[in-house]
């Protein structure tokens, strides 16, 4: 099996010698075999384990088993515990869907933080068969018919060449110990029902079912690749993003052939279902502000675009800015604070919204950087009267889900700058200004 493993990796161009891989290891037979193959192939790897807290002490015993596995192979070990049932209930989704969302988001976080090239999961040919049948039963698009890809972004499936039977033969031959998940026998889970009841019946019709499905999947994947090329061109044309959100020009979608299919494909990375995509499309001609939710993202239909924001935007508390501070990080952005300087002859006040040019004599350090709240007000540049921040944001047509990410810079309790929008008229540079303080948000 080791030779087949190495041949498959080379044929699929999955891993280069200098790369390192994070293995998703549950402790079950498939993931334990994957660990053993990586070790024998001398590939640089680490182990990541999710404790979903769904099987009481059995879940904790799985965690300890996988930890010992990392010691055996002398590789780094990462572990986390999720309140999966609570998350599933709060988001009104299945436990299995909740576990999938939680684990892949965590795996990606570990991958980025520790510079892994890929995340490897232990899916095999039988998983492809079960996935295709399950997707067909529940309704699916072209992506659901290809089952499980060998490579999808930073996720790879290096034992997708193997059938369950050959994996079992490997553990017997090499006397490998694994943990058996008792929930695999329960038909209350849809995938288990497919595996335990449906597949055996279908194999009475076609004993070579796994290989047949695999050949079908390869043909469907080729068609999907053509579709993906078209979708990639469309993404570049009608979507864009910044540090806060992803934007989709829905006016352009309305002019396309098969617009719902293409909208669903654009929204799939943010876990919107096909039914939600239909509902979103129907909202295109309705008033702005309609909101749609997934466990991970919020979508707001704005005036000319869809605005998508992650639910887990970093929480922010007030930050104090001293006179000698140069850079202050907040959320995904940075505030660069220039030194106080004498104003030079011929100086022109910058007009960019992301730059604040302030009369330094009117600014009192330390400053405070915080999110706005109801009741906040300022005197917008060019006006000599107060305006509520809430009204100002309406005038600026800030999408609903981005309003909560608007920050204020304050001096001695007074708003100096609605960051990235407009400074307060009381702090502007005038003919009497002798010193200036420049700030820029990036």
Automatic annotation (TrEMBL):
It catalyses: cytidine(34) in tRNA(Ile2) + L-lysine + ATP = lysidine(34) in tRNA(Ile2) + AMP + diphosphate + H(+). ATP binds at residues 26-31. Its main location: cytoplasm. Keywords: ATP-binding, Cytoplasm, Ligase, Nucleotide-binding, tRNA processing. Belongs to the tRNA(Ile)-lysidine synthase family. The N-terminal region contains the highly conserved SGGXDS motif, predicted to be a P-loop motif involved in ATP binding. This is tRNA(Ile)-lysidine synthase. The lineage of its organism: Bacteria, Pseudomonadati, Bacteroidota, Cytophagia, Cytophagales.
């Amino acid at each position: 099996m080791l030779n087949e493993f190495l041949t498959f990796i080379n044929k699929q161009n999955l891993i280069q010698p200098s790369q390192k891989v994070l293995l998703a290891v549950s402790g079950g037979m498939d993931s334990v075999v994957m660990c053993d193959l990586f070790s024998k192939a001398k590939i640089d790897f680490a182990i990541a384990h999710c404790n979903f807290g769904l099987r009481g002490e059995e879940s904790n015993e799985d965690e300890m088993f996988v930890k010992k596995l990392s010691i055996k192979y002398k590789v780094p070990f990462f572990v986390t515990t999720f309140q999966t049932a609570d998350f599933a209930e709060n988001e009104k989704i299945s436990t299995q869907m909740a576990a999938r969302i939680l684990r892949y988001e965590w795996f990606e976080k570990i991958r980025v933080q520790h510079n892994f090239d890929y995340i490897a999961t232990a899916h095999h040919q039988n998983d492809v068969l079960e996935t295709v049948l399950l997707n067909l039963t529940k309704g699916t698009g072209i992506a659901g018919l290809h089952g499980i890809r060998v490579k999808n972004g930073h996720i790879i499936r290096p034992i997708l060449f193997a059938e369950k039977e050959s994996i079992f033969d490997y553990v017997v031959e090499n006397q490998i110990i694994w943990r058996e998940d008792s929930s695999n026998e329960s038909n209350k889970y849809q995938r288990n029902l497919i595996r335990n009841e449906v597949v055996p019946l279908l194999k009475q019709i076609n004993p070579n079912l796994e290989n047949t499905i695999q050949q079908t999947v390869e043909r469907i994947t080729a068609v999907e690749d053509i579709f993906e090329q078209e979708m990639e061109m469309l993404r570049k044309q009608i979507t864009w993003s910044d540090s806060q959100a992803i934007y989709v020009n829905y006016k352009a979608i309305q002019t396309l052939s098969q617009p719902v299919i293409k909208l669903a494909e654009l929204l799939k990375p943010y876990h919107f279902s096909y039914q939600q995509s239909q509902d979103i499309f129907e909202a295109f001609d309705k008033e702005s502000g309609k909101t749609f939710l997934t466990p991970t993202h919020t979508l707001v239909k704005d005036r000319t675009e869809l605005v998508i924001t992650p639910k887990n935007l970093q929480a922010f508390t007030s930050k104090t800015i001293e006179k000698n501070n140069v850079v202050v990080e907040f959320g995904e952005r940075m505030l660069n604070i220039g030194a106080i300087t004498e104003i030079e002859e011929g100086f022109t006040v910058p007009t960019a919204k992301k730059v604040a040019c302030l009369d330094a004599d009117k600014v009192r350090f330390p400053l405070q950087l915080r999110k706005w709240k109801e009741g906040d007000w300022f005197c917008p540049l060019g006006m000599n009267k107060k305006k509520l921040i809430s009204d100002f944001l309406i005038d600026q047509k800030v999408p609903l889900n981005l309003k909560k990410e608007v920050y204020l810079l304050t001096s001695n309790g007074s708003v100096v700058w609605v960051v990235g929008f407009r400074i307060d008229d009381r702090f502007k540079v005038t003919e009497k200004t002798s010193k200036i303080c420049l700030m820029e948000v990036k």
